[in-house]
Amino acid sequence: MIFKWIYILGRNFRNPSSKVIHRFLNDSQNYTLNQLENFQLNKLKELVGFAYQHSEFYRKAFDEKQISPSDINTLSDLQMLPIITKNELITQNSNIHTNFKFKNTFEAKTSGTSGASLVFKRNEYCDSFNRTVINHNYSIYGVKPWDRNGYFWGFNTSLLHRLKTRFFDVLQNRFRVFSYSTTELNQFIRKLNSARYIHGYSSSIYETAKAINQGNTVKPSNILMVKGTSEKIFDYYQPEIKKAFGTKMISEYGAAETGIIAFECPHGNMHINMEGVIVEELNNEILVTNLHMLSFPIIRYRLGDYIKLASRETSCPCGKEHLVLIDVLGRIGETVYGIANIYPSLYFYYIFKNLSENYLLHLEYQVVQKKRGHLIFNISSHLTDTDKKLLVKEIENYFKNDMQFIIKSNTIFEPTEGKKKSFISSIHNERQ
Predict the structure, then answer these.
(1) What backbone torsions phi and psi does residue 112 show, to the nearest 5 degrees?
(2) Which CATH class is domain 335-425?
(3) Predicted TM-score of the model (pTM)
(4) What is the CATH number assigned to the segment(s) 1-332?
């Protein structure tokens, strides 16, 4: 009960708009697709008008394209507006921020795992909307925001930041892994017996599930939800996770600068948060517009992921008519260098997807490139001769004779900070 009151006090202090937003989301979950898109259009008009009036960057960008906010009359008119990149968010940071004096804003920061960290101010309503959307989706699984939970996420290694992290973890009825030593992991697993949900890096949750299944520990019996975020959830994760926790892992997709983009329902569909964002698919790339970020407008933002959207006619047994995101295929911009040509790192996704779908060969992998024209395929499990031949065949299908490679089985992956990386290259900045 004490954690419920701590949550309510914190919410009322930081996010006073959340009550109104909560009531709205309870209604909008039953909206038709037409109603959702009408809502999006109205919010888009407000956003574009506000950005033009209060952001030097957007006013200049719209004027250069001879676009007026009054030109936005349909959702498809969004395509007239310029696309914005992460680099522009960083280099034009002060000009993108609006000059409107909000009653309250919060500093937000991206993780920087893509190579560059972004710092920006998020207005209270936007912050409240994002948090309320998360809690609304949690409620579908019977989870309350103050429930006991285990957390897999990055942290600062300095003593001061560790103490600060522990303090806020206590307030949020949360515990996390600070290292993956056997002792600390076993302590974390024991604490899971009192948890109602688990969330964080999907690869870390998977590794913990394996440790539980392979050990003599009692499996957690009160877990209502296992949520993976920030990383792709591979199909081969699910049997281990369901065996360990009694439920499959669901997916949440979003970013600090965009807010929650999509959340998986109990029927396995990733519904787009249409009340909060507009998602466009352009040549398989995702473009995101945050409908509530007025302090730092995010309009047609190239997030850097390949995605696949379901058709508008796709229906879901859960009853929601929100559009569905089929898959997040991988990061854009990570280049693989062959002997003569360059390739997208998305190739690795398809290589291992083909093995999984065509041969039921589910492999956990990490590909490393240290020199041009050469790849190291690290595989965590044992490979039979047949498995290896199938993998070689798929690699050669994609890279032909332009790549030399070696395959290592039973390997421990190269450590990375926070997210597990499926592709690591030390020659990203080379030029052809």
Answers:
(1) 80, 10
(2) alpha beta
(3) 0.83
(4) 3.40.50.12780
